[in-house]
Amino acid sequence: MTQTGWSDERLRAGFRRAAGSAAVPGDLVFATTEAVRGTRRPIRWALPQLRAAATVLAIVVFAIGIGARLTSDQDQPPSSPSTHGLPILTVAGALAKHDAGSSEEMAVRGYLSPAPDGVRCPPPIGQAINPIRLDCPRFFAWLLDSPTPLEGIGAALPAGRIGFHPVFPGLNAPAMPQYRPGTAPLSEVVLIGHFHDRRNIPALCDSPDPGVCDSFVVDGVVEVDGTPQPVSTLELLEPLGNEPRHEPRWTASDADAAAHAIAPGLDVLSRVAIAGHRIAELEPALGTGALSIIDQPVVWLINGLEHRANEPARLRTLLLVDGSGEAFEAVDWTTSNVGWAPISTPRPSPTATETPAPATPEPSKPDSAVAFPDTVLGLDVISVSEALEILARTDQEAAGPHDVALAVRGWYAAPTGPMFCPMIPANLPPLELRCPDGYLWLMEREQSPFGAVDGVTEWRTPEGPALHPIIRAGVPFPVLADELDVRPVPVVVIGHFFDPRAQLWEESKRFVVDALAWQRNGPVEWNLVPLGGTPSEDPAAVEARVERQAGAARASWGIVTTGARAGGLDALGSIGGLTDATTVWRFRRLVETGGVPVVRTAYAVDGTNRVYVETEGGWARLLATGQIQLSGAGARGLPLDLFDAAGIVVAARSARPGEPSLVSPRIVPGPETVGEVAIENPGGRLDELWIGWSGSACDTAWSLSIGGPEPSIYLEPAPRQPCDPAAVGRGVLLVLSRPVRASDVIVITNPMGG
């Protein structure tokens, strides 16, 4: 509706003239965004009742004033009351749904003010990739309540305007309007999408500001200026770095057929064929290697509506592995810690127009000259498929241990020569996937997972049972690299599933390699792996000390490194005396726990007698440095375990009767089971420490821990046997490597016993 004398055609001509005369300073957006970058907008919806005076981040575009009143969408009834089974809402109606916390799919009619092209933007809000985050220039795009264009490019709306930020992840909509400065009316669009997207969580948005990802996520474009739009199909197949380009085996129709096999009648809104290693661009949670999607050449993401009687239409997002029956569905975070769960689907029949798949090399015949051993280190050698069966049937709720040591035979393939890998963060969790994990294969059948296509090496998923071996720093894996240049290598590896360092369910299902045990030339000889530190001891002597304190092992694989790096390899956190040590020897040891073979870690601090061992759950505890036989009445053969966490005890023995001749011992009150604790430097010698206390004839054992860097002792009795609790004097004499004043020692006692 317009004023008298101004026809609609005359108005449009005036708008076109105004648009053509406007000049936009190219650098103003960048300068202005930088100026306000320090202040985030708590609310992005420019409702008049919420924002009386909005701060506008804008490029001001001056237009010729035209005496016209443009109609709003409230004045203009929609041409269709519903679409795809959804009522078509106004912008204000959609915002009311947002404010009520609704994440349901909705159809919205509004006027699109697109983000401009070529805007100089500051760096993104966060380092993580998230397609729904309102980075520049996305926050310049608006879906508005009326066709009146904004006076410039704004990250906030002026008072009186109603709108919100739409984002279009994974959509190919060539008919969508582009930004054009001036006063021409905005294009009318009908979009299907939702607020409160599942990717709007702090871990994926990489920002504490909840508004950063509070966008309207468009799943399908229905109309543009009254013209119906086809279902969006987008291909994101161009490789990153030196990855090969893979063409999809399926057509869009094949992908729809696979989706309909899962959800019959699914109303497909959009589909994307994307290279697996690029999945983080649309699904950040899968870009970490979760569900091994990054290993797939091509996957399809399909968004569609499921209609059920008497229920609102429900969005279903499916991920289909191209050309296979493997499929996943986006689910609530309470259902899966990666936001996706596997589902089953039959493989659809290819259409006549299907693009031929690249030829997959046929598995070559097994090398008749290779005879895998039946056992290694007392472990039965099993196949890859047998290992995967063990993984599938292991019940983690049952009593453990679950990380049983397995000897698995197969064909190992890995890239040779230089390859491009992104930088690996220093604090990455031990089992989180990183390059080149996805290129390593342990396969049941002899075959090559790579081949040359137009002179470019292309990696493919192997035929038959196969897994990605996780080989971390310090693992002895001296595979014959010269053979890898020709073909995969026959190997037997020792490893395990359900590693205690796993932080996610998917990580627990990875096969973690402990050592290479056998290859074509026979059993492998293991050498110490140097990874830092300045060792002062002979490796054989250190290993013998570990054997004495931790017990015998079938095999042991060692590295020498710094305490900090040892803690990082095993996610130990901070353990005083270990992770702060200059040099630490780390041994992975094949031992038995409850009759089950497992690989456990032991640590020896260089130049000391301190040995730590891995406990249930992946922690480390200090083993007794030595054992003293306490003498005195009722103490014949009574053991005292000495734990020297400070590493300062040179020698120790039981105090003899009448020793020492006390001058002025320091007396510390203790519980009844310990009595008063006396502590003194005998004869004033600061490198000796006498510790005395009252025990009982009921004693069975004691333990004494020496801590640091502040000198401390921790005295604890073992559980006592029933008897007449007559008091018995106890005492030990310690010779130290450095002076310690008795008056400075912190005394801690445990009255309960171990």
Indicate the topology.
Elements (H helix, E strand, L loop, with lengths): L7 H14 L6 H9 L45 E2 L2 E4 L1 H9 L6 E8 L28 E3 L18 E2 L1 E2 L19 E8 L7 H4 L10 E9 L2 E2 L3 E5 L15 H11 L4 E9 L22 E9 L7 E8 L4 E5 L9 E5 L30 E2 L2 E4 L1 H10 L12 E8 L27 E3 L6 E4 L2 E4 L6 E2 L1 E2 L10 H4 L4 E8 L8 H4 L2 E9 L2 E2 L5 E2 L8 H12 L4 E7 L1 H8 L13 E10 L2 E10 L5 E4 L5 E3 L3 E5 L7 E7 L4 E6 L11 E3 L8 E4 L7 E9 L5 E6 L4 E6 L9 E10 L9 E4 L5
Parallel strand pairs: 2-3, 6-8, 10-11, 17-18, 23-25, 27-28, 34-39, 40-42
Antiparallel strand pairs: 1-2, 3-4, 3-7, 4-5, 7-8, 8-9, 11-12, 12-13, 13-14, 14-15, 16-17, 18-19, 18-24, 19-22, 20-21, 24-25, 25-26, 28-29, 29-30, 30-31, 31-32, 33-34, 35-41, 36-37, 37-38, 38-41, 39-40
